[in-house]
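Reading a protein record of the kind used here takes only a little practice. The integers have meaning only within a learned vocabulary of local backbone shapes. With that in mind, consider the following protein and its fold in token form:
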Amino acid sequence: MKSARPRQGLAALCLAVVSMLVLSACSLPFLPAPTAKPSTSTVDPSIAASAPKGLEKYYSQNVEWSACEDGFQCGNVKVPLDYGNPDSGEITLAAIKLPSSGTKQGTILVNPGGPGGSGVDFVKDGGKTHFTQKLRSSFDMVGFDPRGVKRSAPVKCMASDAERDAAREKSFQENTDDGLAAALAFNETVTQQCVQQTGPVLEHVDTISAAKDLDILRAVVNDAKLNYLGYSYGTFLGSTYAALFPDKVGRLVLDGAVDPSLSNEDLTSGQAVAFEKAIRTYVADCLKQKDCPLSGGVDNGVGQIRELINAVNQNPQTAKDGRLVTGNEFVNGLILPLYDDQSWPALTQALDSAFSGDVSQMLRIADLGADREPNGTYSSNSNFAFNAINCLDYPMVTDTAGMRAEEARLKQESPTFGEFFAYGGVTCKAWPYKPTRTPAPVNYTGSSPIVVIGTTGDPATPLEWAQSLRKQLGNASLITWQGEGHTAYGRSNSCVSNAVDNYFIDGKQPQDGIKC
């Protein structure tokens, strides 16, 4: 899936599914091939009756589910283009269902993160292994592509794969006036392409609109209350839903939590610090292995990595396939394996090759984060959706003095990665639509308890964010996994999985503060 995105401020808040370098990042075309007569889900009249005024037709729509892939069902759900003007048009959300293998208790809607991650791909590629058999026996697992993502009215900003390759090879020295001007000009051009190629939906891919979509999805799967498993950015989507529809909250698990009260700049700072901690943890482990290309203590090992990054940043290198690897892409490749400690051996191999002058393996890891296939095609629009959604969700510092100050702070907080996380405001300065929200603590007034999960060594969503979200929600409990990498359920231990399963299946709220 996606890695953090240096040079764009807020890093991608994505889910690492088992080992990202083991699970293929490619995704099959979404072409349902019916093998049996399609089934149509009819919404219970009592559920449809709870629709907000003016949205009745969306809440009462019948969804046709067709057999697809191998044991899945695929369907499409209509939602309004603009909730402020529901009669102005509609868009279609793609969804995939892994039917329960036992007595169905309900449906769990799943979001893997991002913003820009495909829930369809997540459930299709990992649904049969990522969720426990116990959970899959009791619930249909439904993944969906949120508005603006891949199959659901996708954000489009570049016409060809070659154009996307060329954009990734660009390098701007934003700490100089000329470099910053060039970066701003490039991003303004890309923004204009986004507007032209995407159309009206570009103004409406914000998380508040996506949360309202989530309530329609809840209704059309015939659940009176929402059962939901959200990872990373998906926790932000989930907490937004909880604030908007407190009485419709059923059982929500928010894993790898985002603190909705933090600004874009504070989130970026938190991630830069957490990734710095993660690279030190990786180096400490690497130095214990016989094949580690680093030497000395942790400080020396991290210093050697910094020197390598600086060398590539100052003199971009050519990979074996002829593509140019900039410092930014090198860091993207370096960061991705930090999402899952099972991927650390792959990082060690890539570093070993890079120290020998071959950056090809590091570029291939960066390609996984960008959803680029070995044949040169891109399997998703995750980068474009990521930018579009964040520009609507977060007011950003875009003035030169403010961005320069942020760079100085990030370099101090994270000597290895800080400069690569700076200048996030460049991406959104020319964005034609204003942000739809101001960061603030979530206000949840519902009676159903929510479960929040944090991981002690999470580089993308630090544990402190989970602790803060749990306090904001009030009616919630926190599970802490003492491990390395991003998120917990599906890649941690039985302590976490049993607590989550018992909550979903039996309604048993985990003890607040439990450590696994």
